[in-house]
Amino acid sequence: MKTIGVVLAGGKSTRFGEQKSLYEFDGRKMYEHVYDRLAASGLCDEIVVNTNKVLAPHFGCRTIIDDERYEDHGPLGGLYAVKRAYPADRLMVVSCDTPFVSQEWLQALHSTAAARPEHIVISAEDGKLHPTIGVYQGAGLKEDLRRQLESKRLSFRAFFENREVIELDIREMDEDPEIFRNINYKEDIE
Ligand SMILES: Nc1nc2c(ncn2[C@@H]2O[C@H](COP(=O)(O)OP(=O)(O)OP(=O)(O)O)[C@@H](O)[C@H]2O)c(=O)[nH]1
């Protein structure tokens, strides 16, 4: 089984005010910070950006475009498109707006996922879930995602009701919760 690194970057960035995945800071676009961390982890056989058809031409790498039926369905819609493209593989997902995720954390997620191949493994911080930093895998995942999208219950919490999920909590590891910092507004970068 291959591991596919997935940079989620198909959102609307309403709160940010412009497309945050393409916003440049510290000399790199936001999605490139995430891409580079996935690449440097050495865990991914391939890395793709998952986005919509309007944004796709702006990324300088392979993109997977959201399925027409599930455009603007949020991150679960994005994951469905990637799972369709890579049905046999494990998806190591990081959203473009969490650009400070560490190599060590990616390694911890990956090794937990490799030991429990039927489980989704997501990040958590004192019980608060960070499902857009996680590993998505297991039999029937594509079909479960499709069913969830059809049900119109588009939250990760709703999706997790039907799957085995491991929450890897940063408070139990020797890591700084800053690595989960989520950029929703411009001020979040400072
Ligand atoms: N492929 C894909 N990714 C999405 C979609 N909606 C959100 N995302 C991604 O999922 C992650 C979390 O998105 P949010 O921050 O909740 O939403 P957003 O649309 O980017 O921002 P807001 O409009 O401010 O809520 C980000 O990496 C988004 O790019 C979607 O419909 N398709």
Automatic annotation (TrEMBL):
It catalyses: Mo-molybdopterin + GTP + H(+) = Mo-molybdopterin guanine dinucleotide + diphosphate. One of its GO terms (cellular component) is cytoplasm. It comes from the Bacteria. Its EC number is 2.7.7.77. Residues 5-159 form the MobA-like NTP transferase domain. Its main location: cytoplasm. InterPro entries: MobA-like_NTP_Trfase, Molybde_CF_guanTrfase, Nucleotide-diphossugar_trans. It is an enzyme of class 2 (transferase). Transmembrane segments: none annotated. GO terms for biological process: Mo-molybdopterin cofactor biosynthetic process. One of its GO terms (molecular function) is metal ion binding. SUPFAM superfamilies: Nucleotide-diphospho-sugar transferases (SSF53448). The keyword GTP-binding applies. Signal peptide: none annotated. It is found in: Cytoplasm. Its cofactor is Mg(2+). GTP binds at residues 8-10, 20, 50, 66, 97. Mg(2+) binds at residue 97. Belongs to the MobA family. Transfers a GMP moiety from GTP to Mo-molybdopterin (Mo-MPT) cofactor (Moco or molybdenum cofactor) to form Mo-molybdopterin guanine dinucleotide (Mo-MGD) cofactor. The N-terminal domain determines nucleotide recognition and specific binding, while the C-terminal domain determines the specific binding to the target protein. This is Probable molybdenum cofactor guanylyltransferase. It comes from Lacicoccus alkaliphilus DSM 16010. The gene is mobA.
